[in-house]
TrEMBL record:
Protein name: Acireductone dioxygenase
Cofactor: Fe(2+); Ni(2+)
Binding annotation for Fe(2+): 99, 101, 105, 144
Reaction it catalyzes: 1,2-dihydroxy-5-(methylsulfanyl)pent-1-en-3-one + O2 = 4-methylsulfanyl-2-oxobutanoate + formate + 2 H(+); 1,2-dihydroxy-5-(methylsulfanyl)pent-1-en-3-one + O2 = 3-(methylsulfanyl)propanoate + CO + formate + 2 H(+)
Biological pathway: Amino-acid biosynthesis; L-methionine biosynthesis via salvage pathway; L-methionine from S-methyl-5-thio-alpha-D-ribose 1-phosphate: step 5/6
Length: 199
């Protein structure tokens, strides 16, 4: 399945363990030596992903199937870059605060690129690089954050089940039902829980 994330020779989704450096959040933050993580390992954390065709997303049958199967009735498109996002620096800083949501976070990269960071079962940061064509779903209750990379631009489709609720709950919020359900399903189960298979 990992080959599905190759676009020619370029991967549209890659993941690795992060270093502990306080340098610019937009840098890759690889460990030395680099420590990559498979898409299968991400699935064990409840994170699923697809490679889709961003150049024809309006007519993409695969995207339509995913939306129908997972109930993603809401859709909008947002540009995150200095020219188009009001209060850009403050917004980017708030996106990078560690938080969770009580619903899934679904992002489909139509142009540009960015990083989604999520915690593994041992609370270590995993950096997930998403490029044009990559779609990622972070499960409700997982602690995560987002930042642009040094290109400072992403155009992303946001999907949601029903009316969107974008409320972030900054860590710690371990008392929320969504957090408890996440821990029960993906962390406390030694096998990683029943991660949903990507198409």
């Amino acid at each position: 399945m990992e080959a599905a994330f190759q676009d020619g020779k370029e991967e549209v989704l890659q993941a690795w363990y992060m270093d502990d450096s306080e340098e610019d959040q937009r840098l890759p933050h690889h460990r030395e030596p680099k420590e990559f993580i498979s898409l299968g390992k991400l699935k064990e954390l409840g994170i699923v992903s697809w490679r889709l065709n961003p150049d024809d997303y309006e007519n993409d049958g695969n995207l339509k199937k995913i939306r129908e199967a997972r109930g993603y009735s809401y859709m909008d498109i947002c540009d995150v870059c200095p020219e188009k996002l009001p209060n850009y620096e403050a917004k980017l800083k708030s996106f990078f605060e560690e938080h969770l949501h009580t619903d899934e976070e679904i992002r489909y990269c139509l142009e540009g690129s960015g990083y989604f960071d999520a915690r593994d079962k041992s609370d270590r940061w995993i950096r997930i690089a998403v490029k044009k064509g990559g779609m990622i779903v972070l499960p409700a209750g997982i602690y995560h954050r987002f930042t642009l990379d040094t290109n400072n631009y992403i155009k992303a489709m946001r999907l949601f089940v029903g009316e969107p609720v974008w409320t972030p709950f900054n860590r710690p919020h371990d008392d929320l039902p969504a957090r408890k359900a996440y821990l029960e399903t993906f962390v406390q189960n030694e096998l990683g829980g029943p991660a949903v298979e990507a198409q």
